[in-house]
Amino acid sequence: MSELTSTRIRTTAAKLGLPHLAEALNQYIQRADEAKMGYLDLLDLVLSEELAVRDDRRFRNGLRLSKLPHHKTLEDYDFSFQPELDPRKVKDLATLSFVEEKANVALLGPPGVGKTHIAVALAVAACRAGYSIYFTSLDDMVRHLKAAEDQGRLISKLTSYLRPAVLVVDEVGYQPLERAEANLVFQVISKRYEKGSIILTSNKTFGEWGQVFGDEVLATAILDRLLHHCEVVPINGNSYRLKNRLQAIERDTDVA
Fold first, then answer.
1. What are the pLDDT digits (tens) for 195-238?
2. I need a surface site. Which of 28, 124, 202, 252 has the fewest CB within 10 A?
3. Which intervals hold domain AAA+ ATPase (predicted)?
4. Nearest CA to 114 among 236, 251, 215?
């Protein structure tokens, strides 16, 4: 291939938004020569790798915008430490059928059992599959919605919680809400109902949500929409954080 032709192909690739092709053109040609590829095989190779690069770029950009606290996966989760939790149920959720069905997932249990880890892992899997994701604690979401309401931007801010295919709402129940705050949560839940998935974590049973939201009727209305299409995963076990802390104390004691 002449240098003029190579330059023209790189320029065209850049204009088409195919930067990897522009950068890797010589490598493609070398691989095609070594494997004695036909024209269709070479075209298939180029298009497949461009798609893989584009998907990886989209995935990394999605994670960057998601506000996830970390990017842990289910492979990082120690199911052996939570023997009452059925790994098959969690791995079934990782197939993302609940996202396709615009259903929800509720992870319930005491602090430290790995609820947030699983919620994040499911969100990461959804992002890799091409779904938009966003992470927030309940307290942060309420705080931002209240500020937007005070500034006359509530509808715009609500949209940021309605737009993603998967919204992760962490730490439901750690702080009780006032009725006006609970009403903002109700607006998010009701507007996402059957339009997008929610993954939430909570240290409270559903029977305690009346206390969390400061109003039994409002809590019932939230639960009615949330649980209509929802997989509930209780995690009743020991705290990972406490386990790690106790191990550190034991190590320090042994050294002493």
1. 999 999 999 999 999 999 999 999 999 999 999 999 999 998 88
2. 252
3. 101-234
4. 236
